[in-house]
Structures are given as C-alpha cells and as structure tokens.
From TrEMBL:
Binding-site list for [4Fe-4S] cluster: C243, C389, C439, C442
HAMAP family in UniProt: PurF (MF_01931)
Glutamine amidotransferase type-2 domain mapped to chain residues: 6-227
Keywords: 4Fe-4S, Glutamine amidotransferase, Glycosyltransferase, Iron, Iron-sulfur, Metal-binding, Purine biosynthesis, Transferase
SUPFAM superfamilies, sorted: N-terminal nucleophile aminohydrolases (Ntn hydrolases), PRTase-like
Record-stated family: In the C-terminal section; belongs to the purine/pyrimidine phosphoribosyltransferase family.
Listed name of the protein: Amidophosphoribosyltransferase
Recorded catalytic activity of this chain's protein: 5-phospho-beta-D-ribosylamine + L-glutamate + diphosphate = 5-phospho-alpha-D-ribose 1-diphosphate + L-glutamine + H2O
CC cofactor note: Binds 1 [4Fe-4S] cluster per subunit.
Protein source organism: Pseudodesulfovibrio sediminis
PANTHER family, alphabetized: AMIDOPHOSPHORIBOSYLTRANSFERASE
Gene3D superfamilies found in the cross-reference section: 3.40.50.2020, Glutamine Phosphoribosylpyrophosphate, subunit 1, domain 1
Transmembrane helix among keywords: no
C-alpha cells in the first residue's frame, strides 16, 4: 500500500484566512492524514494550532473563529517521509528569533538531511524534532546573520539543501512560496478576490472559488507582502524532474498538477494500456477508487463495457473496531465488496493504478475467485516499481517492492491471475505532456538528484543526542 505525502495551503490578505486555510487543507486531505496545522499572523504575533489526525479532528469553530486571528495564514497536512509520526513533528514548524516569527511548511524530502544536521549540531544548533523541515529553519536563521533580507537568507539556505521541496514560509508579514530547482513537488499560485493563495493542488482553489493562475516554476521564490506579489529565482533552474506519481496516483483527479489535468492523464494511461495489452474479456472494472479513471480510458479504447463490480464503503474512518483473529480478510472486506452476480463465470480485466507490495490486490483477487470468476487479467497504469523513492514517497527499500524482486509472470502467479501487464515507460510518457520533464527514478533507477549515504524516514531517529520517545 502506498502512502500519501504532505499538502500545503497558504493565503495572504483575507479576513477569513484561517477558515480559508482550513477548507484548503480539507480539500487536500488525501495527501496526508497523520497531522494537521495552521498558523496565522495578525500583524503583531503569530498564532498556531496543530494536532494529530484529520483536519476536521484538529480544528473547531473556536480555533477558526476566535483564536487563529489574522489576515495571513498557512497550513500543512502531513504524511511523514522524514521523522516519526509524532505531535512534535507536526507542521508548520515555528521559530522565534529576535523580532522574527518564522513558520515553515514543507512537502517533499531532503536527501542530505543527516549531513546538514550533523554540521549544524557541531556548530551549536539544538534540535527539537526529527524533521528535515527543522534543518531548513536552522539554515535560514544561520544565513539571516550573513545577509540583508529574509529572502536572501532563505535563498542561501535553499542552496545548501538537496532533494525535493515545495515550501511555504510565513516570516512576520511576508508569505513566501518556493520550489526546488528541479520542481519535483507541485505548488500552484491562485487568487481569490484581492488575496493570493498557494496550494499543492488546485482542487483546494475550487473549494474556496479561487482562480488558478499558474504552477510555480523550478527554483522560483514568490513573495507576497503588503498585498503585492514579487517573484525571483533564487538559483539557476535545473531540468524539470516532476514527480509523475502525482498524475498516476497521488493527486485528486479534479486537480491540475504541473499544468496537467489529472483526470485526462489517467484516462490516457488506461487507453495506452488497452493498446499495449489487449485481451478478450467480458468487461473492465477498477478497484475503486484508485483505478477508476484509467479503467474508463481502457474501456473506451478497447470497446469493452466498464462495470463497477466492486463497491467501496466510503464511510470507513481511520479508527475501526478490530475483528477477532478468526475473521480473516476482514480489512479487505470492510473497504470493498464485490457485486456477486457480476462475477460468476466472467472474464474480467481489472485496471489498477500501481502495485507496490501486491498483498492487498492478492486478497481481492482471492475473493473474486471464490465468487467464481472465470479469468482475471490485471492491467496496471504505472510501470513496474523497482526502485525506492527518496524524494517523498514512502517506499524507501527494495525489499518491499514486489516488482524489484520478481518477474511479471511470477507476480501473476503470486496474485492468482491469468495475465499481468504494467504500462511501459514509453507508453506512460506518451500519456502525459512535456515528456522530458518527469522523475522516473522509481521505475528506472535514474535518480535526478544525487543521493547521500544516509537517508530514509528514520535517518534522524537514531542520531546521537536525539531523545527518542518511548511507549
């Protein structure tokens, strides 16, 4: 099972800034469910509310209507890619330095966190968390003493860090947004009335009826102050290496990401699958909701009917009374349930967006077999994932990737299906626009940003001097 990463939202110059940020985070909840946070600036002080869990669990009317005052706000929802899932690692991360109140929210993952943190600690820095975001904060403060403006300090800090990052920074009365030189992670600029807004995905703009202006460019820094926007490049942009998993899986289908409409790209991937691996069958079906849109494309291209023969329970929350040990496969059944009359004796094409470990799909295929499916063919709108991701997706070891260790025919036998086809890398690139701008490292092992010796989600958890939490 893949896990999402973080979502960002920021707004400048709105009397309902906190409430707007709440809705912006709510629209992007799919990007992270571990923690949520909002900070505001009221012209005098910074205010914050952070907590573990979903957006609706962390904030209430008292927070949004009374406590989080101010016309500037930014928020963050987190799925951890560096640092454990703890309240101390919830973002935005706050720093108070003299008259400066600094808040940072980060989507992505740095690959030189360990080295930078060791250097900073050697020079006297004291850390409170195990997030790479705090490393960025310390670097900004360090360079603030050597430069004239906060923008220059941020630029110098960002020249030291390496990896994938889209960031929002609240520095007193300034709201600053920036992307890494390769543009790996998405961040969009919009406007609602006289207010500028930023979000990881444009679905957040739709909810607050904001106009989508454009995506931020690689290496760009956008500064909003006194209601005016300024833009600069803090470094020389590198070749674009946008995360193609945004289009395959992460982003909501109604979002525009990197200038691409996600729904249309997923349909195109499904159509490409039908061209690459046609098969005679009775119908096409997705495993909701991840395979829905590629399945539409496969059906339209192949001429086979699309059936929703697996029904999802949309009311399964984060917490659920766990079944007794003898209730096998309960976790599969509680989320998805097949329409039994559709399955018996049928030749079925299942369209999925990706396979990481394969255990979930195997359990679902087993259920279809028990109901009498005659043939099951699996088509995957993502190439085989053979390499770990170090830029913000939580499959950071080859051992957990089934395609890294087994051939497609072996995976098909493990899953209990007649055939399996992953979309080819050329086929995937033909399904998107701007074909030379994507990071494909998890498919081909060509990492566009040089890696370090010590990386991964827990790379700071065992660092000497860091106090670990015990249960």
């Amino acid at each position: 099972m893949k896990k999402e990463y973080c979502g960002l939202f920021g707004i400048y110059g709105n009397k309902e800034a906190a409430r707007m940020t709440y809705f912006g985070l709510y629209a992007q909840q799919h990007r992270g469910q571990e923690s949520a946070g909002i900070v505001t600036w009221d012209g005098d002080k910074i205010r914050e509310q952070r907590g573990m869990g979903l957006v609706a669990d962390v904030f209430n009317e008292r927070h949004l209507g009374k406590e989080l005052k101010g016309g500037i706000a930014m928020g963050h929802i987190r799925y951890s890619t560096t640092g454990a899932s703890l309240i101390r690692n919830a973002q935005p991360f706050l720093v108070r330095h003299g008259d400066l109140r600094l808040a940072l929210a980060h989507n992505g993952n740095l690959v030189n966190t360990y080295e930078l943190r060791a250097e900073l600690e050697e020079n006297g820095s004291i850390f409170q968390t195990t997030m790479d975001t705090e490393v960025i904060a310390h670097l900004i403060i360090k360079y603030l003493h050597k430069t004239d403006t906060i923008e220059e300090a941020i630029a110098e800090a960002c020249k030291r860090i390496r990896g994938a990052f889209s960031m929002l920074i609240l520095a007193n009365d300034k709201l600053i947004a920036l992307k890494d030189p390769n543009g790996v992670r998405p961040l969009a600029l919009g406007r609602v009335g006289d207010s500028y807004v930023f979000a990881s995905e444009t679905c957040a703009f739709d909810l607050i009826e904001a106009e989508y202006l454009r995506p931020l460019n690689p290496g760009e820094m956008v500064i909003i102050q006194d209601g005016k926007m300024d833009s600069m490049h803090y470094c020389e942009p590198q070749p674009k290496r946008q995360c193609i998993f945004e289009l395959i899986y992460f982003a909501r289908p109604d979002s525009n990401v990197f200038g691409d409409v996600v729904y249309e790209r997923r349909k195109a991937m499904g159509a490409m699958l039908a061209k690459e691996a046609p098969v005679d069958a009775d119908f096409v079906m997705p495993f909701p909701d991840s395979g829905n849109y590629a399945a539409v494309g496969y059906s339209q291209e192949s001429g086979l009917p699309l059936e929703l023969a697996m029904i999802r329970n949309h009311y399964v929350g984060r917490t659920f009374i766990q079944p007794s040990q003898d209730m096998r496969d309960f976790s599969v059944r509680v989320k998805l349930n097949p329409v039994k009359s559709m399955i018996q004796g049928k030749r079925i094409i299942i369209v999925e967006d990706s396979i990481v470990r394969g255990t979930t799909i195997r359990a679902r295929v087993k259920k279809l077999r028990e109901l009498g499916a005659r043939e099951i063919h699996l088509r995957v709108s993502c190439p085989a994932i053979k390499h770990p991701c170090f830029y913000g997706i939580d499959f950071s070891s080859k051992g957990e990737l089934i395609a890294a260790n087994h051939k497609p025919e072996d995976i098909a036998r493990f899953l209990g299906i007649e055939s399996l086809h992953f979309i080819s890398i050329p086929g995937l690139l033909d399904s998107v626009t701007d074909i030379d701008s994507w990071c494909l490292a998890c498919f081909d092992g060509h990492y566009p940003i040089p890696l370090s010796d010590r990386m991964g989600k827990d790379c700071l958890e065992a660092t000497p001097g860091i106090i670990k939490e015990f249960c």
